[in-house]
């Protein structure tokens, strides 16, 4: 099974982002995935798109979860994608 490619949209000084990253790292122990962190402040387009939503976890073009990240529902969704 090849690892999932996850894009994690975040920003500096974001407690929700820190919590979400920790959840992703915990899930990475059981679900093979590569996490690509993207700071939205590197692009005006990303600030406009995700500024009010971050953190955002995406697989491909699909945004899986954003804002308050829930570990169990995220696990289920990642397992579904990884089939």
Automatic annotation (TrEMBL):
SUPFAM superfamilies: Thioredoxin-like
Listed InterPro entries: Glutaredoxin-like, Glutaredoxin-like_YDR286C, Thioredoxin-like_sf
A Pfam family annotated for this UniProt entry: Glrx-like
Coiled-coil ranges per UniProt: none
PANTHER family: GLUTAREDOXIN-LIKE PROTEIN C5ORF63 HOMOLOG (PTHR33558)
Name of protein: Glutaredoxin family protein
Taxonomic lineage: Bacteria, Bacillati, Bacillota, Bacilli, Bacillales
């Amino acid at each position: 099974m090849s690892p999932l490619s996850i894009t994690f949209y975040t920003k500096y000084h974001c407690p929700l982002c820190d919590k979400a990253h920790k959840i992703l790292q915990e899930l990475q122990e059981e679900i093979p995935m590569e996490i690509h962190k993207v700071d939205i402040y590197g692009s005006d387009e990303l600030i406009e798109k995700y500024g009010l939503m971050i953190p955002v976890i995406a697989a491909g073009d699909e945004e899986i979860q954003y804002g308050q990240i829930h570990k169990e529902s995220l696990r289920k969704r990642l397992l579904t994608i990884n089939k």
